[in-house]
Each structure stands twice: as structure tokens, then as C-alpha cells.
Amino acid sequence: MVRVLQLLTGTALGGGPRQVLDLVRHLPTNEFRVSVAGPWDERFATDLRATGVELAGVTVDSLRAFPMTLRRVTRLIRDTEAEIVHTHGKGAGFYGRLAAKWAGVPAVHTFHGIHYEGYSRSGQGLYLALERALARITHTVINVSETQDDEARRLGIARRSAVVVNGIDVDELSRRKVTQKEDLGLSEDNQVVGSIARFDPVKKHELLVKAVALVRERHPNVVLLLAGEGPEKARISQLAAALNVRMLPADGATAWSTNLYRSCDVYVSSSSKEGLPLAPLEAMASERAVVATDVAGHRDVVENGETGLLVPPDDAEKMAVAIESLLDDPARRRQMGMRGAERVRREFTLQSMVAKTAEVYRAATASRRG
Question: Out of 206, 259, 264, 362, which could bridge 194 as a Cys pair, Cβ 3.0 to 4.6 Å?
């Protein structure tokens, strides 16, 4: 039995927590025993508890308590008798990989997107230097798309890497309660443009709000559904009110536990950069056409003109045109939605993600025993 410690920087709605939850649920129980640690989140803890795993609360997103946090993570590795430490996010990747080296166990790190462009020039240099140093003590860096793997290798932050494409649990998605328009207090005359993502600057919610404001000039019955949590939520709500955009907020718990995609006429992802986003995949699996910014990550998911439309980043007008073209063409939306669902079932399966991750764990375990 191989003991794996999953260490997360954040446990709210997002790709890392979703992937960890899927691994806990689906890794072979006769081969792997998983422990999970990260900041406390009630929803995530409840979902984990349903699998028989308790969330160990630990905060790893700050350098202020460096020695204490490093000791705590090292102790956690020993307490769980972990033979592999799998980290997700910058803080977890820093503390988890250092602690794994100290404890003498191999580390695996997943990049759920490589985000550093928002730092100052000196900050970018420091971040990349740190990641290159951490790469030297990492058994395997997992990249969630070929595009991201190319970037990581070019930047020198992945010495030994594996591409494990994100997959979604289509069966679990189909079991969720479907949210209809009437559940949101809407009529059939309303058209819903939706997005499910944490409220983080990289998600560029303001671009989507501005695009919907333009769409509403010709389609006044359009409403915007934004689901998630995060530091940008209040600011985005204020922007929507200022631009006269009717916004239907939904919390992270609702986004985790129900299928909101079915209430949408068009799904939009406005991020400035992604690893390989799960929400657009779930939207596609729910037979919804997707409009997304033409950036890394989105290109790996959306086939332009087939399963959705790619638009230039930071261009609200072109995003509005794309959204409006789909709102005005229900037949095209349906065709894109069906092709998207077929693509998810063909290329983004949970089973493949779990199997490839298990292969990485086996290689890491063999290296330690060797």
C-alpha cells in the first residue's frame, strides 16, 4: 500500500481541489491510501469526509511563518507515513517539496496553470529561479496540457515532467441536481450567459461583464450568471451594477453540488491564462457551446468553430459579438454542444487522468525503493 499525501494551497472551488477529490475517489484503494491537507474549507471537507478521508487543516500560502510551516508540513508527512507528497499550487509546492526532501520522500508537483506574468520584472525572476530550484528536488512535475508542458520545459521549471490531461467525472456531473432557469427566478424569455470560476484576477471577470453589457444593448433579456468565491467578487458585482448588467451570483457550494451549466444558453471563460480548465469541460459535457479567450489552456479545450468560439483576450467587443452570434443561432449552439460532449467523452476522461497519475506515483515509489 502506497501512502500519498495531497497538499493544496487552496481548497475552495477550483481545478486543484476538484482533481484531488477525484483522485481520492478513484485511485485504486488496494494500491494507494491518500491523505489530504490544505486550508480549511467546509464544502471541500464535507466532500472528502464522504469518501472516508478527513481534511487536515494547514495554511501554506505565506512565507511569514516559514520555519514553523515547514516543520508542520514535515511533521504531517511523518504522521501520515507518506511515501509520496503530491503538491498543488505555489505555496504547497514550496513547502511540500522542501519538506519531502527533508523527510526523504519523493515529491510530485502539479501546475494547474503557470501564473507569474502579474509579478514585477524582479518578482518574475525570483519566482522562476525558485521554481527551477524546486524542480531539482521534484521527482515529477505534472502538467495538465501539452501547451503547459511546452511552457514549463521552455522556462526550465520541469526537469522531469509528465502530461496528465485533466479529466472530469461525467457520471458524477450527470447525478447532480440540474438547475433550471425557473430555479433562478428567470423566465424562458431570459437568455443566460454563465461562467463558473473563482473570483481571481487571472479569470478576468471584468472582461465578461463588459461584453455582456454590450450584448444587453441589443438583447435586454440577457442575464449574467457568475458562480464562485474569491477576493474579486465584490468588485465584479459593483462593476456589473455600474454597467447595468443583471448579475445572478451563486456561491461556490452551489457550483460544486449542482449542474448550473444546464441553465445557461452560452458558457463563457474569459481568463487571461489557464492550465486546462475544468469548468469549460463540464459545460461541454452538459452540451453547452463555449466562448473562451484565445489563450493557453483554452486552446487545448475548445475547438474553434466546432465546440465553441475563441476570441482575442482583452477584447470585450469581439467577445460580445461571439456571444451574440450564438444567442441568435440556437441550432448552432446545439450542434456545438453535442460535439463538445462527444469530445469530452473521447479525450478528457477521468479514468485516463487517474490511470496516468497512478503511473507517476508508481515511478516515484520505485525510485525511492531503488
Answer: 264
CA 314 – CA 272 distance, rounded (Å): 8
* Cα(194)–Cα(173) distance, integer angstroms: 17
Q: 101, 97, 100: which is closest to 131 by C-alpha?
A: 97
**Residues 6 and 34: beta-carbon distance below 8 Å:** yes
256 has a pLDDT exceeding 80 = no
Residue extents of the structural domains in the chain: 2-167+349-369, 170-347
Architecture of domain 170-347: 3-Layer(aba) Sandwich (3.40)
Question: pLDDT at residue 130 above 70?
Answer: yes
CATH class of 2-167+349-369: alpha beta
